[in-house]
Design brief:
Elements: H1 2-7, H2 18-85, H3 95-108, E1 112-119, E2 124-130, E3 133-140, E4 143-153, E5 156-164, H4 173-179, E6 187-188, E7 192-193, E8 200-208, E9 217-224, H5 225-234, E10 242-247, E11 252-254, H6 264-270, H7 281-292, E12 298-303, E13 309-320, E14 323-332, H8 334-337, H9 341-354, H10 356-384, E15 388-396, E16 400-407, E17 413-419, H11 421-424, H12 427-441, E18 451-456, E19 462-467, E20 471-473, H13 474-481, H14 486-505, E21 508-509, E22 518-523, E23 526-532, E24 539-540, E25 553-556, H15 563-567, H16 574-590, H17 600-609, H18 615-618, H19 626-635, H20 647-655, H21 665-679, E26 694-699, E27 704-709
Helix pairs in contact: 2-3, 2-10, 9-10, 14-16, 14-20, 16-19
């Protein structure tokens, strides 16, 4: 203080003010420390609130997406099963082929409890999964009160018996619901207790009309709710958080973690009970507030009876137009900041001891430290809750890399596409990446790649998760097997046409149909299943967003580009996709491209001016039928109006070909069992980039041509 006085020219007469001045400085230091502490608590609360909302929202969405993926898998499996058995007869004497067709689905989908198949005449056939065996139950329309039961081990009947029954399959909820829907459309029941297994669950069903019979047929996949509760009781979004799933009417589908539900019988009795009667205090308080505010969708903060602060997120998931379930994720606020309490207290003590001279520095440092610690805690929770675990890189393209991954809960193989960080800095590249995933996720056709999830990594990198396909591209197929039999070509093209028909019906044009954008794989016991992918260049008909698909830009792959798109890019239409599909069919039939050239410009010129050589002349020994050749050449017409009117018409033309149906599952299965390992193996890399994988981007204002190669 003496030095302070001398420095400021204080005279000895002010020495008597020494002690009061010291007291004032101490008071200033105390006031400063109090203000700093108050500010710290204010910003701490504000930071906690914002981060809590962000984390609860991400966990609510992740859990809801997991549930939606489970039900989407069930519905996709149902459609695959319906497609596989649509020509089978359900009546007695024909059920062994039905068993062989449906049994693989019980092992393919672990959440399935049983499969029901019935017709409007009263015939029914049921497959029930048991450890190491499968029970079947059959009812004949002529004897509706007698059910024939069989126990099968490895497909062989080891025991059978009969029982009386008074329940007709046509009176079951899954049968009635499917009959109320259009043919091929899924119907979800409300939760109920299964007749055969006495397990609580939900069913998804669909109907169709066989060509050889007048009676409507319905197939149903039955999902036990016990499996859902097994997941939710193990799923903690944080150390003390919980997840609950319930219906619009308040019936519990997925139970929260609680020691009472560790016993299987207690868990079974609690499923389908009112969610308000589970007697979990944190859940009761959240539901009381939620019901009191008219059941809003979103995130809110509430307090339990012991005044502990919690966060709750409620999200609805629609299974179909009549069925909605709610996902609730509850996390105590202490789980967010538990790791920062010690650091916060030390920071406050430091502020009080250091005083006014370093109060500002300590305040800024402590705020940064708390923010860093909170973010570390959040990152730790997010890593713990990560839904996907990357295994290995399986491909890389111009705008990103694709990894093989595993879903943490479903243990399902998944493909993750991560956007290249260099492209992430470009607004147009990010928008194109988002455009690709948004477009693809709105397409539901079985032959279109399925999108499971979409989001950002902690460093801001965009990614999306899609189904993992264990197969190879059509380009790889031709490289491996050469020209294909015409019947197999028809089988492949019909599936691609089905995918395009859905896209065109939604006014979407793919614009990059080519062999490397179609994967041939095995799905759900079916072989030679085609999946169309890479919707990154898709264009919406009459769209107005010039940032994504500009009218003065020529985008696509030269070997499969329609003449009108080359001459006038703004004329992109569904007929352009059909031209590309015809070029794909040409390559599958002959093993050669429609036109070849030394450069993209030369190939484009041939598309504009040269007539294609008929496939039968390009491959004279392939035995290409005249009707199929005529259909392919029609697609390759120079004028769009001369091509088929749409993908559905092209698909109908394929079905009218003489070779339609000659390639069946027996032949496909035999081919895959013989060649699967070699066909799906890693393709050898070369230094040269094939033109079949080359896309062109032409700015018609500058007349400049650039190329970029894609390896996926």
């Amino acid at each position: 203080m003496k030095t302070f006085a001398k420095t400021h020219g204080l005279d000895s007469q002010f020495a008597r003010f020494y002690r009061p001045l010291a007291r004032n400085l101490v008071m200033i230091a105390i006031v400063t420390a109090v203000l700093a502490t108050a500010s710290l608590f204010y910003f701490d609360h504000r930071l906690t609130t914002s981060l809590s909302k962000r984390l609860i929202e991400s966990n609510t969405q992740a859990t809801a997406q997991t549930l939606q993926n489970l039900f989407d898998d069930a519905q996709d499996g149902l459609h695959l099963a319906q497609r596989q058995i649509q020509h089978h007869d359900i009546r007695p004497g024909h059920r062994d082929p039905l068993f062989s067709a449906l049994a693989p689905f019980l092992s393919q989908f672990p959440f399935l409890d049983s499969i029901n198949l019935a017709d409007a005449d009263g015939n029914e056939y049921v497959l029930i999964k048991r450890p190491g065996e499968i029970l079947t139950r059959g009812i004949e329309a002529e004897a509706p009160n007698v059910a024939l039961w069989q126990r099968r081990v490895h497909g062989v009947v080891v025991e059978q018996w009969t029982r009386q029954t008074d329940v007709s399959p046509v009176d079951r909820p899954w049968f009635k619901g499917a009959m109320s829907r259009e043919s091929g459309h899924g119907f979800w029941t409300t939760p109920y207790t299964f007749l055969t297994t006495k397990q609580p669950g939900v069913s998804v069903s669909s109907r169709w009309s066989p060509l050889q019979r007048e009676a409507e047929h319905v197939v149903s996949f039955n999902i036990t709710l016990i499996d859902i509760s097994h997941q939710t009781t193990q799923l903690r979004p944080s150390d003390n958080g919980m997840t609950v799933i319930f219906t619009q009417d308040g019936e519990t589908l997925g139970l929260p973690p609680d020691p009472r539900f560790e016993d299987e019988s207690a868990l079974l009795s609690a499923v389908l009970s009112p969610v308000t009667e589970l007697k979990v205090p944190a859940l009761d308080a959240a539901l009381a507030q939620w019901y009191a505010t008219d059941q809003p969708q979103g995130i809110s903060r509430y307090r339990t009876p012991d005044r502990a602060p919690w966060w709750a997120g409620f999200s609805p998931e629609s299974l179909d137009e009549d069925t909605t379930v709610w996902v609730a994720v509850l996390i105590p606020e202490d789980d967010f900041l538990g790791a920062t309490i010690t650091q916060r207290n030390l920071t406050l003590a430091g502020i009080g001891l250091t005083g006014i001279l370093i109060a500002g520095l300590v305040f800024v440092t402590s705020m940064r430290s708390i923010r860093r610690q909170v973010r570390t805690a959040v990152d730790r929770v997010e890593r713990k809750l990560g839904q996907y675990r990357l295994r290995q890189k399986i491909g890389e393209g111009g705008n990103g890399a694709v990894y093989r991954a595993t879903h943490a809960l479903l243990r399902r193989p998944t493909a993750i596409k991560l956007m290249n960080p260099e492209f992430a800095r470009s607004d147009s590249a990010r928008k194109r990446f988002e455009h690709e995933v948004q477009i693809t996720s709105n397409l539901n056709h079985p032959n279109t790649i399925a999108i499971y999830d979409y989001g950002r990594t902690p460093d801001g990198t965009l990614y999306y998760a899609m189904e993992f396909l264990n197969g190879g591209t059509l380009e790889r197929l031709v490289q491996f097997a050469g020209a294909l039999p015409p019947a197999r070509v028809i089988h492949i093209l019909e599936q691609i046409a089905g995918s395009l028909a859905e896209a065109h019906a939604k006014r979407l044009i793919h614009r990059d149909i080519k062999p490397s954008n179609a994967i041939l794989c095995e799905r759900g016991g079916l072989f030679d299943v085609v999946k169309v992918l890479d919707f990154g260049l898709v264009k919406e008909i009459a769209e107005t967003d010039g940032n994504l698909t500009q009218s003065n830009l020529l985008i696509g792959t030269p070997l499969y580009m329609a003449p009108e798109i080359i001459s006038s890019p703004g004329q992109a239409s569904p007929q352009g996709d059909l031209y590309a599909l015809g070029a794909v069919g040409y390559m599958l039939l002959t093993g050669s491209n429609v036109f070849d050239g030394e450069s993209a410009v030369e190939i484009c010129a041939k598309h504009l001016h040269d007539a294609p050589v008929p496939p039968s002349q390009r491959a004279p020994g392939a035995g290409i039928p005249a009707d199929l050749e005529a259909l392919i050449l029609t697609c390759l017409s120079k004028e769009p109006a001369d091509r088929p009117a749409g993908a559905s018409e092209f698909r109908a033309g394929l079905m009218n070909c003489m070779a339609w149906g000659e390639w069946d599952q027996g032949q496909a299965s035999a081919w895959w069992h013989m060649h699967s390992a070699a066909f799906t193996g890693t393709e050898s890399s070369t230094n040269a980039t094939p033109l079949s994988n080359t896309e062109v981007l032409v700015d018609l204002d500058r007349r400049a041509l650039s190329t970029r190669a894609s390896r996926v």
